[in-house]
Every structure is written in C-alpha cells, then in structure tokens.
Amino acid sequence: MFLFTSGKAFVKGHYLSPECQIGWNSTQSATGQSSDGGTIWIKHGRCGMHRLRTTNPHGVQFSTVIVVSFHPVFITKMDRAYNVKCEYLETQKSITPITVTQIAQSFPEPSCSYTIRKDELDGEVLKYARVGQQVVHRWECETSVYGMLVHSCFVEDGQGRRVMVIDEQGCHTDRLLLGDPTYVEALNVAYRESSVFKFADRIAVRFICQIRLCLRTNEGCAGITPPACPSPVQDALERNNLRRKKRAETNDMIADLVSQTVYVLDDTELNDYTQLEEPISEENHKQSSTVCISPIAVGILSSCLTITVLITSMLMIVFGIRRRSGVHSTATVVPTLSSHISKKYYY
C-alpha cells in the first residue's frame, strides 16, 4: 500500500494495466469517494513485483518502482519515481523444557553476488552489449566454509516475461542460451561462458538465480554440488526423480541472486553509449600537452582574427585622418585672429 496526496500513480512498465495504476484528484478518490489522498494497492507477485529471498538477514524482500505523475498523458519534470522495498524478516526461536548445553560451531553467512562479465571471468562488469557478444556469467560467494549450487535461473525482460535457462537441478535447459555452470574446486565460484541474447522488441535483459548453500565440512556438499547433469539422451523421468531425491535429502540455506541489467543495443547505439560512459584517464591528461581543435573551430577563430585586424586598421586610419584635419584647421584660424587684432590696434 502506497499513499499519495494527488495525481496519478502507477507501477513502472505497467501503466496500461488497470490493477497496476490509480488516478484521482484532491477531492475525489479512485473509488468515487471523497478523500484527501489516494491509495494504490499492489498484490504480491503482480505488476512485475520482484521477490527475493535473502540469507543475511533471513527473510523475503519485495520491490517495485512506483511512478507518481501529475499530468494525465505525459511524463514531466514534476513527476517522481520511488523504488519501494518491503522486507519480511524471519526469526527462529528454539524453546526447550529443560536447559540444554549445546556445543556447536557457527559460521558467518557469506555474501554472494551474480555478475555478467565482458569476455572473461575477471572482465569488467557489463552494462551495454550487442547480440552474439561473448560474456561470462559469474556466481560467487565470499566464503571458504560453504559450497553453493546454482539452480532455477530465469532471464527476464523487465516487463513481466521470464524464461528458465537453468533448471532446479542446476543444469541447462537450452545450450544455445546458457550451458551448465562450471564450479571451482572450492565450490564457492561458478561460471559459464555464453553469448548475449535478448527478447524480441526488448533491449534489457536481467538474470535471477537461486543458490543453495551447503557446509563443506564432513562432505556436507557431496551429492549436492557440482550437479550431476544428465546427458541429452537420458530419460526425462530419470531427471525428475533425481530432482525430487535431491530436494528430499537437503535442508540447506537458499537465497536469490540477481544480475545487473544488461542493455542489448545495435552497433551504432552501442558505440554512442560506450563513448558517453568511457572515463577519461588522468594519466592521459598529464602526458598530453596538445590541445586538439576541430576544423570548424579553426575556421571560426580565423574569421574572428581577420575581422579584428580589419576593424583595428579602419579605426587607425579614421583616427589619423581626424588628427590631420584638426591640425590644419588650427593653423588656419590663428593667423586670421592675429591679423584682426593687429588692424584693430593701429586704428
């Protein structure tokens, strides 16, 4: 539930869905009743709401973007967007009738991430790409105690459409999209090379996966990770039985990991975006002492310099002519006055 005083509120990307937007004014609410404000209700899992399970702290997080618009048709500078997150935390309490002394070893819960890298495992985190570009999907948990299993991965377009690319067992569903993850010996990093793809008529893709954490001590991850992915000729029934067996035998921590959003653009658009975001190296500034000027700027500077020289020359000529005229006039008037005074004196 989100409360606003006036205007129109809707979930970003779902403006045309009646259940995802509401409009009202200061005296009339969306239900036709007099009200000082409006309320938009969003059901769990509707209107593209994202749901994430977290391990630190334990719980479930729901998030969405609410746009408040003050124009009935257009998005203007007065509008506001709010990234709303609701967290439901879990608490576990053990109640026993007698006091029991327990000696147990506890381990800190790891911090995990999911990134899509350019070209190689340690490449830069990708933001803009083109279809077919080589990338590496990387799942990582900062721990030496836990192992992880990557499973139940989906690719989303940000508009509510999603397709599974890694199943519940942790195996691929379509090799053309994404293959089986490869795990390092410590079981805390998994990766997979892939080529960039996107939904038709969409430019944004984002991946969301679940990870299952298991303790590596006493072979606690045996039979869990790495997964034993069946070959393409194996029977589908055998795959399903293996999934059910694994789910029944394990009671480990499960969390959701979300990759960054990758914008898949055409070559021309990709060059424009990368040039805008390419940082200028400070070292290049120090090493370079030459100022580059475009041909258009050179032409403008040359024209301005020529005009300045012409104006200066004309001013000097005019000043010289006026000065000469002033000297000549003074020389003519002085003798006339002198002769007049002389004549008046003699009479």
From TrEMBL:
This is Zona pellucida-like domain protein. It is found in: Cell membrane. It is a single-pass type I membrane protein. GO terms for molecular function: structural constituent of cuticle. The keyword Signal applies. Residues 1-228 form the ZP domain. It comes from Trichinella nativa. It holds the Pfam family CUT_N. The keyword Transport does not apply. SMART domains: ZP. GO terms for cellular component: plasma membrane. The chain crosses the membrane at residues 296-319. PANTHER family: GH04558P, ZP DOMAIN-CONTAINING PROTEIN. Keywords: Cell membrane, Cuticle, Membrane, Signal, Transmembrane, Transmembrane helix.
